[in-house]
Design a protein that fits this description.
mainly alpha, Arc Repressor Mutant, subunit A, Tetracycline Repressor, domain 2, elongated
């Protein structure tokens, strides 16, 4: 007599499932995305989700890590690859204008939008910490700019980093509200017009320098 074979767990592509979960969290935020919606979007049952990713919070944490190496990797690359602090921040904002409005995925930044109305303390804190780490990375690059003579010695790098972060976060929200890439590029250009200028550059001809934001000048 033939032995009845036990059913095998439903297989799925983990990378594809994570991308679909990312889009759900990106579009609706952490609190606004239910487990039932996640299973529907990912095309798997709740038991498979829990077995593969743990609970909703664990899945979200993995989604944020993946986002940081894919759609959200631009700012880190800009800060690391550009030769000057000015070029790094300009690229960061310019690429944000492109990424925040790109077709094929929700607009804005997942890390910013997912925190909206978040009432889960651990998730809220983790997202706050990640945003704080981003500001610290910007401030570190600005300090390098001061050390290299690109920025005035009196530059308040903490305030300037928060200024850049505020522009970045505002661009994210405006993209959610329908701002176009051109709209956001205009915001980025205005932000860069306020870039502090060192004295040698100020004495140069045709610098087009902005005013000394955050320098105390």
């Amino acid at each position: 007599m033939a032995t009845k074979q036990r059913g095998r767990p439903r297989s799925f592509d983990r990378e594809t499932a994570l991308e679909k979960a990312m889009r759900a969290f990106w579009e609706n935020g952490y609190e606004g995305t239910s487990v039932s919606e996640l299973t529907r979007e990912m095309g798997i049952g709740a038991p498979s989700l829990y077995a593969a990713f743990g609970d909703k919070r664990s899945l979200f944490e993995e989604v944020v890590r993946v986002y940081g190496t894919t759609h959200g990797a631009g700012p880190g690359r800009a800060l690391a690859e550009e030769p000057t602090a000015h070029a790094a921040v300009e690229r960061l904002l310019r690429e944000a204008a492109d990424e925040f409005t790109a077709p094929g995925h929700p607009h804005g930044c997942l890390v910013i939008h997912a925190a909206t109305n978040c009432t889960t303390p651990e998730v809220e804190q983790a997202l706050r910490d990640q945003r704080g780490a981003s500001l610290a990375a910007i401030e570190d690059r600005l300090r390098q700019g001061v050390a290299a003579g690109e920025l005035p010695e009196a530059t308040d790098t903490a305030a300037l980093a928060r200024y850049v972060g505020a522009v970045f976060q505002g661009m994210s929200q405006q993209s959610r509200d329908g701002a176009t890439k051109a709209d956001l590029e205009a915001i980025a250009a205005l932000a860069m017009a306020a870039w502090p200028v060192s004295e040698p550059a100020r004495r140069g001809v045709g610098t087009g320098a902005g005013r000394n934001v955050g320098t105390g000048a």
